[in-house]
Structure formats: structure tokens, C-alpha cells
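Anyone up for a design puzzle?
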């Protein structure tokens, strides 16, 4: 049985008139199963385990096409690598671990309320926004003898 996310991506592709070639199906399968935000190189590594004949150029072309059509969202989290995720129906923000590159999605009604309040206080209404918080684990790699 295919997961709902994979069917959503396939449905979006069909809706946008994109042909579902064999390589695209595999790329979408891997994206659907991803719990992280893979870049093209990592996605190619995962896709190659299923079909070693899929070239990295095919992955790049497919990612760019899916992003152009709104099937995927593209993020660049400060490390220069373009990462991709399925569009979410609900707004969310990201924590980016600067040591590992891991990306954690979260939602905070309090942060959303504060952003609205700050925009209003300055005479604006928010049209769109994105919050990326760069973090490192608490207590990570402190030099001996240094206090936090």
C-alpha cells in the first residue's frame, strides 16, 4: 500500500500535467518516505539504493521541476544546500542544528501570535513569513573549565 503523502505527490503531479516516469515515481517514493529535508545529493543516494541507474542530473531536474510546479518546497538553511519537503497545509517553522544539519519542524501558536502583534504594532499585516532558528545542543562541546 502506498502512503498518503506519496499519493498526494502523485496526485499533484497529475494535476500539474507532469508525466510520472519510472525515475520520477522512485524519487517521489523516496521523498514521501523521508522524515527529514533531504538535499539532492542525499536524495540521489537514497534513490540509487532502489535504482542505481538514476543519474544525479535526473534527481536535480526532477526536484527543480517539482518545485517550480509547487509540488515541493525548497529551503536553504544557511549551509548553502537546497533541501526539499512536501508543501504543508499548516504553517510551521524550523530549528536547524548547526552541528549536524538536522532540521526539526515545529509549530508555536505563541510565536505566531507574537509575530502578528509585532507586525500590527508597526502598522503592517503579515503576508508571508518564515522562521528558521539555528541551534546547537545544550552543553555541546564546551571546553573544560568554561562555564555556560
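Challenge accepted. My sequence:
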Amino acid at each position: 500500500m502506498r502512503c498518503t503523502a506519496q499519493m498526494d505527490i502523485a496526485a499533484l503531479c497529475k494535476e500539474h500535467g507532469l508525466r510520472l516516469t519510472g525515475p520520477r515515481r522512485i524519487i517521489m517514493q523516496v521523498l514521501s518516505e523521508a522524515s527529514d529535508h533531504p538535499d539532492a545529493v542525499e536524495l540521489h543516494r537514497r534513490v540509487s539504493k532502489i535504482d542505481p541507474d538514476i543519474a544525479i542530473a535526473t534527481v536535480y531536474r526532477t526536484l527543480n521541476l517539482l518545485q517550480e510546479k509547487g509540488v515541493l518546497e525548497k529551503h536553504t538553511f544557511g549551509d548553502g544546500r537546497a533541501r526539499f519537503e512536501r508543501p504543508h497545509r499548516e504553517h510551521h517553522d524550523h530549528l536547524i542544528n548547526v552541528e549536524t544539519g538536522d532540521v526539526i519542524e515545529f509549530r508555536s501558536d505563541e510565536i505566531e501570535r507574537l509575530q502578528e502583534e509585532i507586525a500590527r504594532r508597526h502598522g503592517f499585516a503579515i503576508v508571508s513569513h518564515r522562521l528558521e532558528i539555528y541551534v546547537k545542543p545544550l552543553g555541546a562541546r564546551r571546553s573544560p573549565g568554561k562555564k555556560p
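A detail worth pointing out: Strands lie at 73-76, 82-85, 93-97, 103-106, 132-135.
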